[in-house]
Amino acid sequence: MGFRYLDTSILKGVDLFDDLSERNLQEVIVLMTTMEVKQGMPVFSEGDDGDALYLILKGEVRISKNIPGVGEEALAFLPEGSCFGEMSLVEGKSTRSASAISQKSTELVKLSRKDFLHLMETNKDFAVEMLWGFVRILSNRLRNSNDKVTFLAMSNMFE
Fold first, then answer.
1. In the prediction, which pLDDT does 55 show?
2. Is 73 strand, coil or helix?
3. Domain that holds residue 45
4. Which H or E element spans position 22?
């Protein structure tokens, strides 16, 4: 894939970057690189080192987990504009908890953990804005998980 100019408009509307000022959006966008992944190919696999966040510019990505005795279980199908892998930015030496597989030919933007941490250390305004983005995402995920657990618990009550 050739060079592609990235502008801050691709980050607007992405939950993680919602709280960033235009100045901080500009600082993070210059650190991002683009990549293409062919249909059916992994972006990363469960157990790989977590080293980057990804944003889907074009295409779709399936997030799945290998369940022993069952096989692959799809957890989510992420459309254009979605980001994934963001927890690897803050977790340190962690491995991927699930796989990300391209559902169709997909164009991604990648932000490495190394570049992200450098920006967090050198730009405190960016760090505060990003941390609020993470808090909002984690809060939404916890709420969704609670709803799923409640649904599953209620489903088992009537069996």
1. 95
2. strand
3. 8-157
4. helix 22-29
